[in-house]
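Sanity check

After download, print the first record. It should look like this:
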Amino acid sequence: MKIEDIMAVAPVIPVLVIEDAATARPLAEALVKGGLRVLEVTLRTAAAIEAIREMKKVPGAIVGAGTVVNTDQFEQVMQADAEFIVSPGLTERLGEAIVGSGVPFLPGTATAGDIMRGLDLGLRHFKFFPAETSGGLKALKALAAPFYEARFCPTGGITPATAPEWLAFDPVLCVGGSWVTPKGASMAEVEALARDAAGLAR
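Expected structure tokens:
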């Protein structure tokens, strides 16, 4: 799959922080059952790599690695067979390594310079991060105007209440969010939240 295909699967990509790999598979099952098949496992915990492996066992799940910040981490998640890569920012070294591998890549951008760096690498699809503290939808609209060919997945501070406004903006293909997996939620609750998120209009 190309990154644009992955971004088109569902309106919301859950941004997941997995503390215990034993919870990864049931969490993925609940999310997929609720209609969110694209799962971003952030490399913020020691359990992340194993969590990617466990989630990939769930039929229908498309599992990627998020918060990839250097080439060492990129190599680690490739060994876990991550299906796409998300980074919070974009450096030339990391960008060249991922683009050269052919793995679908969604680099983080917050400025015109970030987007231009991505365009130089042949990229057209970007994460807008951190979305709310980088100026929100107003800022993205300003950035999207000169970069009319770019498409975005805003992430950071987006809620069920604000997601529809982001998704109504044509260059936005999906949003990233952590609200579908609140701390302490049961799998039934996660499934219900995922179903609500999957039903958001684009």
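If your output differs, re-run the checksum step. Summary of this record's structure: The chain has a mean pLDDT of 97.
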